[in-house]
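Ligand-bound model needed. iron/sulfur cluster.
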Amino acid sequence: MEPIAVYVHTPFCPSKCGYCDFNSYAMDGEIMDRTARAIVTEIRRSPHKGRPAKTIFFGGGTPTFLPIDGLLSILEAVMQTHPPAEPCEITSEANPGTVDAAKFRAMRSAGFNRISIGAQSFRDRDLSALDRVHRADDIVRAVKSTRDAGFQNVSLDLMFALPNQSIDAWLKNLDCATTLEPEHLSLYCLTIEPNTRFYKLQRKGMLLLPGDDAQATMYDAAVERAESAGLRQYEISNFARPGFECRHNLAYWRGEEYAAYGPGAVERVGGVRWTHIKHPLRYCVAVERGDDLACEREALTPGMRRTESIMLRLRLNEGLPLNLAQPDPEGLAEAKRKGWIEQSNGAVRLTREGRHFCNQAILALL
Ligand code: SF4
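Prediction:
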C-alpha cells in the first residue's frame, strides 16, 4: 500500500488568540480526555487502516495543551493504524506556554521526531497584543527543552506585520529566532480574518498595522536574514536547512493524499475531500454513536484539481510542473511580462518580485 501523510487535529488552546480563525477552542477539563478517546476510536476504525504513514502531523489548536497521556495514546493509535514508513517525519505543533522538559522527553520517547513551536514574536508586548499565553523567555526555554529531549528537527513560527510593529522590531525578532538555530522557520504575515477579535478592532479603526510597503520590506528582510542564517527558502513562507523541509506540508502543497482525524480535520483521499465535524463535543457524540463524522464533503473535479495545483504548487520554489496543470496561456504571458513568473525545465515558478504578487500571479494563471 502507498504510504500516506496523516494529520491529527487537536482543537484545544489555553485561550483564544485575537487573530485566530483556526478550529480551536478555549476549553479544558473532561472534554479534552473525551476528545482524545474519541480521536483514538476514530483512528482505530479508519478505512485506511494498514496504509503506512509517510508523515504524521499533530496540529491544532495546541496539541501540547492536551494531557500527555491523551496525546501519546493518539500517537500510539496512529502508529498502529498507519505503521510509519522509513523515514517517517512525526511532528507536533507546540506552544511555549504549554510545554516543559518532561513533556518533550515523553513525546520524543513515544516517537515524535519534529517539533514546530509557535513562537510568533520575541517581544512580550507583541505577545500580549496577540493574546498569546507565553512570554519570550518561554520560547527560549522551550527550544532548549526540545534539544535536551533529543529533538534534532525544530521549527519556529514567527509572524510579521503585527500591530504597531516596526521594521526594526521585526529584524530583532528574526535575529532572536536564528540565534536559537532552528532547522526550520515559518514566517507568516498577520492576516485579519472575519469572526476574530482583531477583525472587529480593525473595523473600529483600533488596530494600527504596518502598511503594504512596510510589509513588503519586512518580507524581503526576512528572506535575506533567513538565507544568511543557512535557512533556504523552499516555499513562500517557509525556510529550512537542506534536508529539513517539512515533508508533511510538502505533501499537502504537492497535492498528495492525506488521511485526517479529529474535530475539524480535513482529509483528502481518492479524489474526495471532506471536513470533520468541528465542535469537539459534537464530534465526540458522533464518534460515540458511530455516526457519519463529515460536515462537508466534495468530490474533486478535474477543474478543481487544476486550480488547487496552480494555487499550491506556485507557492513552492520548485514551482508548478507544466505536465501537471496547464496555466492560462494569456495569463502566463502577462505574468511573465510583469516579471512575476519565470519558466524553465518544464515548470513555472514565482520570481523574487513575483512573491509579493502571489495571489495576482495565481489569478493570472487560472
Ligand atoms: S494558540 Fe494558535 S490555534 Fe490556539 S488560539 Fe492561538 S492562534 Fe489559535
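The CA atoms of residues 19 and 191 lie 8 Å apart.
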